[in-house]
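Work package 3, deliverable 3.1, input record:
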Amino acid sequence: MTPWQDQIPRKHRVDHLLIAEMVKPGSRVLDVGCGDGALLHLLAETKDVDGRGMEISRERVNACVARGLSVIQGNADQDLDAYPDKAFDYAILSLTVQATQHPKRVLENLLRIGERAIVSFPNFGHWSIRFKLLWNGRMPVTPNLPEQWYDSPDSHLCTVIDFVNLCKEIGATIERSAAFNASGRQLSTRGTFMDMHNLFGEKAVFMLKR
Amino acid sequence: MQVTRQDFGGGPEKPEPETVLETAAELPLSGTDEIEHPSSKVVRFGLDAALRLECKQDLAPYQIAYETYGELNAARSNAVLICHALTGDQYVASAQPVTGKPGWWTSMVGPGKPIDTNRFFVICSNILGGCMGSTGPASINPKTGKPYGLEFPVITIGDMVDAQARLIDHLGIETLFSVIGGSMGGMQVLEWAARYKDRVFTAVPLATAAWHSAQNIAFHEVGRQAVMADPEWAGGKYTEEGRTPRRGLSVARMAAHITYLSEEALQRKFGRNLQDRTTRTFSFDADFQVESYLRHQGSTFVDRFDPNSYLYITRSMDYFDMATQNGGVLANAFRGTKTRFCVVSFTSDWLYPTRESKEIVQALNAVAANVSFVEIESDKGHDAFLLEEPELFATMRGFLGSAAAKRGLLPAREG
């Protein structure tokens, strides 16, 4: 183990663990909005991937590179156009799509750059959000979406069903999908699961192909 | 010319290469002989090993002066080539023999430093066209027995890199673990990655660009005109005539030095402070500290740099344009690359702004290259890459460290 591998906490985000489970070993991965590089590090450690990251925050990029990850400072809305078609096995957008200016264009770019796209996002259709909006008549603030509406970087929040509809619109096939409840447990996929995921899922993960 | 690829160490018993004629003793530069007989190591290539230049001329014989630090491992896999900038030299981490000052990048290169000489075998050579021991316009032209002056062929960044590659061949190194450099050194790094794709495991271009902008060409032209407008320049034959265009070169350096800083850094460092006086003198004396500082930069530069060398090297940078050289598409230069890149820019660098580093990154992305890109917050301008910038050090350590693990290089010995 090289020293930098000890710098990332051992506790992994549940959506990261699921994404890591979806990714085939040894594949080429682009993580758009890679943050502190936790997912890239997990993928490198458990799946031996050839990973690259893009991150908008300069501080986080510098921390990633200092940690030995291949990360560039860039913006999902502007800097994905430069990548060639199918350059990666997976193009990942983890809890970032809602913060982009043009989610549809970003998603189409991911499907172009990667053989598959893996997208996770906070579900605005979760019952607690619906309840808060109905009861308080105010924009919900939750552990998952902790900022006030004026501080939030999330300009394009959506529900699971909204996302499924966007996938249909851009001709993306949903190969896998999953949702987690507030305690990080994966929801069952029985029955009319999209509706259930939309109601009880706090975060959702989709694997797409076009 | 029988003396081919022969390595001479420094020291008094240096064998006389046949190309050096009697005039060598009269060479300029404060009475030093660093041009023909550098204090550093030097490799000489004979007539049978001519260097084909981009201008289609063959250069032979020629010599490349270089320094090394650390030890080459048995697998010859830990070599790092450092490419110096416009007015740099091979003395990256050891005293410069003319000025006696410490190496130009001792904060970055050395035992336990980010480019750790306990771990890596560091090579730094004086560029072709330079004046610290590699063949350049101040060297003796064997055909005439006089300094080349303007008879020296106009060289390019690519030519410098080709000459370095001959040195690396000579050292018996097939693949460099890393090629690292800032500013013009960064241009060489890019040329290395493009010309010798299989020989560069990692590349670190710092504060640089893939082509020289109109503004940068403009500043260089001001510098060259200052040199050439000085009557002491004597059409480039100042050495033969026993003269030196001190004022011209000094002005060139003063103008260039401003471009290496930032307005913020100048203001912070000097403001409107007066130099050794309490009031204006109503003269054209150096009243202000900033004037005095620039004059000092100019005059000390003249003591260590050859004016014609300055003309040739600035020209090579102006000619640099990797996009045009590759059919107008910068990405073409890197197609098929396996090199791992780490591109670094600095927020206050207006000479090689972040925008231009991003162009390199986009070109590398376009060929799905393995690239990291870091923009470092600094108010020190272009020179930031040479200064104490903790974020740069952390980036360099992290990038080289993880690449070294991939390359199977063991961490440096303790202590």
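Chain B touches chain A at residues 340, 342-343, 361-363, 365-368, 370-377, 391, 394-395, 397-399, 401-403, 405, 411 (CB under 8 Å).
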